[in-house]
Specification:
Shape: globular
Number of domains: 1
Number of strands: 13
Distance between the termini: 53 Å
Order of helices and strands: HEEHEEEEEEHEEEEEH
Helix content: 10-25%
CATH topology: tt1808, chain A
Structural class: alpha+beta
CATH class: Alpha Beta
CATH architecture: Alpha-Beta Complex
């Protein structure tokens, strides 16, 4: 490529307009578009279990969960990113006609072999820059293990929650997320259970 040739990158507006008619989801990362792969039934069951429990826990509170059809927008250093987290909880909502949220307090990603490195590196780094975010949770599929990144006055602290009888406390939402509910209906091999 010579110095007069430029790679055209879609604008945020072009990306959002394209997503309206798209047959498949894609994420926008600082001017680049990346397709989002589908998920296994196990992945979707874990995600849905979280959303059902959080919906019940938050039904009389000012916050609400959104599923992976709602994007989260991250603006930092003059760049914008749009991701589709598996679940997010929002207390300060964008306009209902918008297709993304800007102020999640909780984001949950269910790890898979194809997304693990992105969820634990790129997305975690980006999510932890969101000023409203209080907690980022990644969930294993084959074991009842959650990694919780929790905001403190000193920054985000990492906590590992293991075992089917454990609970993830969510003090910013005045509720908790029991591992028995996250993994309801999920069958583990005996050697996998922690």
């Amino acid at each position: 490529m010579n110095k007069d040739e430029r790679i055209e990158r879609p604008s945020v507006e072009e990306y959002l307009a394209g997503e309206e008619d798209a047959r498949a989801k894609s994420e926008y990362v600082d001017g680049s578009i990346r397709s989002v792969a589908g998920a296994s039934n196990r992945h979707n069951s874990i995600k849905l279990n979280c959303l059902i429990w959080l919906g019940m826990e938050l039904r009389d509170k000012p916050c609400w969960p959104f599923d992976s059809d709602t994007k989260v927008r991250i603006c930092r250093d003059g760049m914008e990113r749009f991701y589709y987290p598996d679940a997010q909880v929002v207390c300060e909502f964008n306009d209902p006609l918008m297709v993304y949220q800007d102020h999640p307090v909780l984001i949950i990603e269910v790890l898979s072999s194809t997304t693990r490195h992105i969820d634990l590196d790129e997305k975690m780094t980006a999510y932890l820059t969101i000023p409203s975010l209080q907690c980022y949770i990644t969930l294993e599929q084959d074991q009842p293990i959650a990694t919780v990144m929790r905001r403190t006055q000193e920054g985000f602290l990492r906590e590992v929650v293991e075992g089917i009888t454990s609970t993830i406390d969510l003090p910013s939402l005045d509720c908790s997320l029991p591992m028995t509910e996250i993994y309801r209906g999920i069958k583990f091999k005996d050697r996998d259970i922690v």
